[in-house]
Amino acid sequence: MAVVRSLGRARYRVVVAHSQKHPISAHSRYCADTWRCPEFTDETFPSGLLEYLRQNPEIKTLYPIGIDSILAVQALRDE
Fold first, then answer.
1. N or C: which end of the chain has fewer CB within 10 A?
2. pTM higher than 0.85, yes or no?
């Protein structure tokens, strides 16, 4: 939630990726949109993320939070 607020206050458009039914950070006024993604450890996460980014080329930066999301995004660094 702190990252969403900080980025939103800095005038970044914040999109929260989540696999939960009701993510808390999505309720922040600084959250512009959400993407319901597979679990970060799911084998479909990498292809799903890459497809989402292709469909949303305005997204230039990812801020993975938590070890599972960090490892999932790091595995795609060459992409």
1. C
2. no
